[in-house]
Amino acid sequence: MRIIFSTLIFITGMLNTMSQDRSIPLYQGNPPGNKTQDTEETWTTSASGSAIVTNVTVPELWFFDSKCKQPAPAIIICPGGGYQYQAYEHEGKQVAKWLSQLGYQAFVLKYRLPDELLFDQATTIPLTDALQAIASIRKNASQLGVDSTKVGIMGFSAGGHLAASASNLFKLDLPLGSVTGNARPDFSILMYPVISMSDDLTHQGSREALLGKQPDEKQIDLFSLEKQVTPETPPAFILHAQDDGSVPVENTKQYAEALRKANVPVQEIILPRGGHGFGFRKESPAFEWTRHLEKWLKNL
């Protein structure tokens, strides 16, 4: 038992460093909405060996510095996990390291999950953190080597829903108070995203975790991002696999169509195979997404 406990401590320490250049707290003092400061976040590994985290109460950005000599675009990465956990390995750290090697200032966002036991106004807690991250990076752009006119957000699965929420709800009157500074992302990258909360399109686990078991129609509509697109929504790269058995590909198709109707530039890519949750797994038939995204980013 003592050996197992020691191993868990070692794994936790290893997962919390994850090779980032540094960690940047989102808030000074107790984050808005926290009911307690005593909860310890929990790091474990999934069945596939990826690092996952739950019980986050101290949100932060993990910075992967490109070491560029000139200000570079910033990309904030929101790992997925159905708003129940966050997949920090193949949908976070690995992606950030790759983007930093391409010359982008990459940040993995460790955001708070919508847990009513831990937070007031739990539904808007993840969005509050995402908008705060955008505003903070833009405010501190010179210190971070960031081009303040090119601060984007990227998300996988439910993290894609969070990124799309930030792309459309950046003017929302948040119940815990407004975010200080410009929180509108300049572009978004959405990977096999949950977009809609409607019965026929949503990922039920993500919807229940975010909105509860019996959400009202107003909440469903607000967080169905295909209904929230305006000409102010930033340009998007959006990718999905046709054979995704968890999040219907129609989420991507309807969001892309809404962007086109609003005259918002969009690159929509539907791959024939890949399923769900492939992230940065090089063995996946969908790993070609990296080539498509690299090409799109060059035209920012």
TrEMBL record:
Coiled coil ranges: none
Keyword Hydrolase carried by entry: yes
Keyword presence, Hydrolase: yes
Keywords assigned: Hydrolase
SUPFAM superfamilies: alpha/beta-Hydrolases
Annotated BD-FAE-like domain residues: 66-259
Pfam families cross-referenced by the UniProt entry: BD-FAE
Family annotation (InterPro entries): AB_hydrolase_fold (IPR029058), BD-FAE-like_dom (IPR049492), GDXG_lipolytic_enzyme (IPR050300)
One annotated GO molecular function: hydrolase activity
The protein's name: Acetyl esterase/lipase
Organism: Marinilabilia salmonicolor
Native organism taxonomy: Bacteria, Pseudomonadati, Bacteroidota, Bacteroidia, Marinilabiliales
